[in-house]
């Protein structure tokens, strides 16, 4: 129906008779002439209505109407060119204009940058998506998917789908459940990830699998979380950690090259979990900034400050001199989110701070040299147990760096040697830190807190992009790990019986990773929320504002499912 798209015509097309179709981006009535900016996914072309009859027709049109225009391409006079448009050197002088679809007045102006509130943008997502920047994100998403697919197919991977409707297993997050009409009183769960299926595919001899997998997790939402998200999910047989990491590095390199035209260096930086925590206070550090945490327990214990004498660890974060106001802000933040107290020392000509009086001048000197303090700096202290004090300072470090310009734009790194288990105070037992399928690095499990896993997390600019591991391929070892992780036999058999039996039928050594596609895309597109790169996202509370979900369902349907609703709680 159209001869060209709205982003296609150039000066070389001058003199051609063309037919365009698109949306009216803007319409300007200059009396003797009407100018229409006609938009589609490919761009915007200026259309001129100069003939009296056409002008009359043009006056009846409005923004977001869909029209068809036939006309002659002509070069614009040099002073009328628009360098910000790719088609800015030409215009189409219409000989015919036809209304295809009219439009109600949109609830917001369809222009970049968005001016409407997020709620309105989501309610009318199909209009919001018309904005060129959103179209760019959709295009980038498609390009990313296809880059990954081409890369993995070339490396002998098979693209295989796994079920979304599956059984409830303890995988970390809460499951979304789906009732069943045929099996009243029973439920499916929406898969949190294809983890078990992809491992079963390795048992099945598939050797190399990948999928763009939808994952469903009923978790509290954050800016970089959604109840359903997409993972680049892959698994490989007969590999060790190095081979998976190398494959992923090549994939990320190809992605950066294809999408941003940038070369990223491989191999990526590597940090052990312990080092990441002890230097940056997080297992996903942004290492683009030289701001560090130090363990100064030994020195702190020599001070007269009672709390430092009583606790196990004292950690210190050294930062450029902070105002009192800023220190108070951080203290409040630490108390509110980490239930931790912050104390501080500020080094100027003199030393001040709420614990200055507990430090002799000799001890201050010792501290100064241990922390390499040369200029005017503030040291924030957090005392307590290892993890909480580090995490508190790590979170303050992140807050402090917000909005600061990093040394380099993109920094990729691997975090390795994660502990497999951590003590869960709530259940009074050991719990897996990641998932229970990760291969331990040792066979000595006397102290579960000391068992590291063959796990590798991929971090980009302080954001966890993905997590993977070499898996356990031996049934006995898998059961042992489940047992340490607090799962008794009955629960093991109920939730994982099918999987454990499969492991007993000759399972090859295997490992893989899952990379958050939405998060990766968010960073590549330079956005700070994954909602910007998901076509139809949910709000932070998990609501779909456009289609109004979740919603009640009709009594008839409930009856069919054999469900009666009694609401309890909030
Ligand atoms: N299935 C895991 C996750 O979604 C990733 C992996 O280990 O491959 O976190």
* CATH fold descriptor of the largest domain: BirA Bifunctional Protein, domain 2
Strand order, sheet with most strands: 6-10-11-23-22-21-18-12
CATH architecture descriptor name of the largest domain:
2-Layer Sandwich
Number of domains: 3
Q: What general outline do the C-alpha atoms trace?
A: globular
Give the helix level as a range of percent: 25-40%
CATH C-level class of the largest domain is Alpha Beta
Q: Average pLDDT across residues?
A: 95
- Quick one: biggest sheet? 8 strands, mixed
What fraction of residues sit in β-strands?
A: 25-35%
List keywords for this structure.
570 residues, binds aspartic acid, BirA Bifunctional Protein, domain 2, eight-stranded mixed β-sheet, five-stranded mixed barrel, 3 domains, Gyrase A, domain 2, OB fold (Dihydrolipoamide Acetyltransferase, E2P), 30% helix
Would you kindly provide a written description of the structure presented here, covering whatever features stand out?
The structure is a single chain. The protein is α+β, with helices and mostly antiparallel strands and 570 residues long. The protein folds into three domains: 11-101, Nucleic acid-binding proteins (OB fold (Dihydrolipoamide Acetyltransferase, E2P), Beta Barrel), CATH 2.40.50; 134-271 and 412-545, BirA Bifunctional Protein, domain 2; 293-401, GAD-like domain (Gyrase A, domain 2). It contains 16 helices and 23 strands. An eight-stranded mixed sheet has the order 6-10-11-23-22-21-18-12, sandwiched between helices. A hairpin with a 7-residue loop joins strand 8 and strand 9 (187-190). Helix 4 packs antiparallel against helix 6. The chain is globular. Aspartic acid is lined by residues 193, 195, 467-469, 512-514. Aspartic acid (ASP) binds at residues 193, 195, 467-469, 512-514.
